[in-house]
Design goal:
- The complex is a heterodimer of chains A (267) and B (383).
- Chain A contains 13 helices and nine strands.
- Chain A has 267 residues and is α/β, with parallel strands linked by helices.
- In chain A, strands 5-4-3-2-1-9-8-7-6 form a nine-stranded parallel beta sheet.
- Chain B is an alpha/beta fold.
- In chain B, helix 3 crosses helix 4, helix 8 packs across helix 9 and helix 12 crosses helix 13.
- The chains are: A alpha/beta (267), B alpha/beta (383).
- Chains A and B meet through helix 3, helix 5 and strand 6 of A and helix 7 and strand 11 of B.
Chain lengths: 267, 383
């Protein structure tokens, strides 16, 4: 059983949603980045999503753009990113690790999928490869033992959702209507997208945009999602030199259906 | 999608999933409009009676060899950009969009979009790298005079590539009301095909004009290539002829120093701004900052059809340096009384080399734009 499948099964048994925490690899440098990844695990993240920085991240808002730029300015190379993933995997054997990056980074490196698998990553999402171009990429991922993650949006037609459902393995990354990453969209989660994905037989839906507060987590889970990923809020906090452990813990607690109610009063 | 959007291995539609429906809508509107005589009639009327088509074909009187200039510099707006901007703006209206967004480098495409926005009643927002805003104050003011809002882009190298990134981000959130009026024959399908079809008028006219004036086809057709819209528009009707097609890239300070925009000559296949094409990049796939004296050729990717024409061998791609372009800019001014854009001067620079080697050959040059925007820079460079 894959690490994602094991995680979803475990969380279902406990009545919890999955909490994914995102960090940009190499931001602001390699040492701080490794420490941040550990903090995400320490805070209680169920799955770790890591960005490999790209010079032209068109699907990202200002916070993630700045994180990628800091990493590139620090001289971080793709090989360093695989080293960080391998080291994270060595320290944490069970946590699912997903890579988020862009097509040019993948095609520039012969054997990207194989290197990702060898480093210990479990999944790969390529932000600028939609379902209609995904075939050759997901074939390579399937061969290398990396689970593809595709994006589904509220405006994605049913025919494309069916293809996304077929090609995605680890989970389905659901986005809000606003299009790019960031914290601005908090709280609006499209229940009909979740229902259409379920009808198409897609892997578990995870909301990936607009998660920065416990009420966003609860709203996302109430819409029927299996979990959430928080990116910009974590990256923003870390960029100001603050610990992210409490934020990760707070958001993770909100995935626990009963306990979540108590937490909202504590904010 | 109804068309493949591929040119050999190049092209495609590499965009975030959320933008795919917007591109499908655009492809559909474009294909439907192609079959609609009323659309063609309105576009032709605008091109003839508003923008000034057909543009002349001018035989140079004093430059060496036999050089013909296709005078897109005389088009309203000052460059070939207006041809396809009017086409896309009519499509935007057909799709019920109320707002236009565009990217611009030197400002020519931004000015053309501002023109169409003012004429056809769109709210218009132009993304422009902060570096380019500072270099091209006059064009910023021209856009603002016509009612467009110019947004300074501070990310990355603060030039054209970053302006495209920002326009794509805007569009990801705004496509229901907004058309992204991409300025060149690059980007995701259907832009490369659609922009070529709207620019095809350049080559169609030039082919008929040179047949009328010279009595035969030219031996070579030469155009500058940044994103490649004027070149693909000029080449399109010559693809099946026995005519050399030559695209001229910005060799900048020289091809070996890394300060150039010669994507087809020095780039490698990759994926940028929605298309598989040649890209200036490092071994990791990080996109390099290009460089050229002409902002319109200062772009680290290129339209995917040019990538295919290069690999298939149907067209050849060469470079002209900043210095060669500046010399051609001066030669045209002194010999023919024409101030051309620095971009177009790259094409002319190569044509002059061809004319010197083989003076009997007839060369058709795409003079894509006029040089008013470059006069201040020329003054500084020639001082």
């Amino acid at each position: 059983m894959s690490r994602y499948a094991a995680m979803f099964e475990r969380l279902r048994g406990r009545g919890e949603g999955a909490f994914g925490a995102f960090a940009m690899l190499g931001d602001p440098d390699l040492g701080a980045s490794a420490a941040l990844l550990d903090a995400l695990v320490a805070g209680g993240a169920d799955m770790i999503e890591v960005g490999i920085p790209f010079s032209d991240p068109v699907a990202d808002g200002p916070v993630i753009q700045a994180a990628a730029q800091r990493a590139l300015d620090a001289g971080v190379r793709v090989a360093h990113c695989f080293d960080l993933i391998a080291a994270l995997r060595a320290r944490h054997s069970a946590v699912p690790i997903g890579i988020l990056t862009y097509a040019n980074i993948v095609v520039a490196r012969g054997g990207f999928m194989r290197d990702a698998a060898e480093a210990g990553a479990d999944s790969l999402l390529i932000a600028d490869v939609p379902a209609l171009e995904a075939g050759p990429f997901t074939r390579d991922m399937d061969e290398a033992g990396i689970e593809p993650v595709l994006i589904a949006a509220p405006n994605t037609p049913d025919a494309a959702l069916a293809r996304i459902a077929t090609l995605s393995k680890a989970y389905t990354y659901c986005v809000s209507r606003t299009g790019i990453t960031g914290t601005h969209a908090g709280g609006t989660f499209d229940r009909s997208l979740i229902e259409r994905l379920a009808a198409a037989g897609a892997p578990p839906p995870i909301f990936g945009f607009g998660i920065s507060r416990p009420e966003h987590v609860r709203a996302a889970l109430e819409s029927g999602a299996a979990g959430v990923v928080c990116g910009s809020a974590i990256v923003d906090l870390a960029s100001r030199g603050e610990s992210v452990v409490n934020l990760v813990h707070l958001l993770k607690m909100a995935t626990i259906r009963d306990k979540g109610r108590n937490d909202s009063g504590a904010q | 999608m109804r068309l493949s959007g591929r040119f050999g291995r190049f092209g495609g539609c590499y965009v975030p999933e959320i933008l795919v429906p917007a591109l499908e809508q655009l492809e559909s509107a474009f294909l439907d409009a192609q079959d609609d005589p009323a659309f063609a009639a309105e576009l032709e009327d605008l091109l003839a009676n508003y923008a000034g088509r057909p543009t002349p074909l001018t035989r140079c009187r004093n430059l060496p060899g036999t050089i013909y200039l296709k005078r897109e510099d005389l088009l309203h707006g000052g460059a070939h950009k207006t041809n396809q901007v009017l086409g896309q703006a009519l499509l935007a209206r057909r799709m019920g969009k109320r707002r236009l967004i565009a990217e611009t480098g030197a400002g020519q495409h931004g000015v053309a979009t501002a023109i169409a926005g003012a004429l056809l009643g769109f709210e218009t927002v132009v993304y422009m790298g902060a570096e380019d805003v500072e270099r091209q104050q006059l064009n910023v003011f021209r856009m603002e005079l016509m009612g467009a809002t110019v947004v300074r882009v501070e990310g990355g190298g603060r030039t054209l590539k970053d302006a495209i990134n920002e326009a794509l981000r805007d569009w990801s959130a705004s496509f229901e009301t907004t058309h992204y009026l991409l300025g060149t024959a690059a980007g995701p399908h259907p832009f490369p095909t659609m922009v070529r079809e709207f620019q095809r008028v350049i080559g169609r006219e030039a082919r008929a004009q040179i047949l009328a004036q010279l009595g035969r086809l030219p031996d070579a057709v030469v155009a500058c290539v940044g994103g490649g819209s004027n070149a693909i528009g000029l080449f399109a009707d010559f693809l099946d002829d026995d005519v050399r097609l030559v695209g001229v890239e910005a060799a900048g300070k020289g091809l070996d120093g890394g300060r150039h925009g010669a994507t087809l000559m020095r780039g490698t296949p990759g994926i940028l701004h929605g298309a598989e094409t040649y890209v200036l990049q490092d071994a990791d796939g990080q996109v390099a900052d290009s460089w050229s004296v002409s902002a319109g050729l200062d772009y680290p990717a290129v339209g995917p059809e040019h990538a295919h024409l290069k690999d298939s061998g149907r067209a050849e791609y060469v470079g002209a340096t900043d210095a060669e372009a500046l010399a051609a800019f001066q030669a045209l001014a002194q010999s023919e009384g024409i101030l051309c854009a620095f971009e177009s001067a790259h094409a002319l620079a190569h044509a002059l080399k061809l004319a010197e080697a083989e003076p009997d050959r007839a060369i058709l040059v795409g003079l894509s734009g006029r040089g008013d925007k470059d006069v201040a820079q020329a003054q500084a460079l020639l001082a």
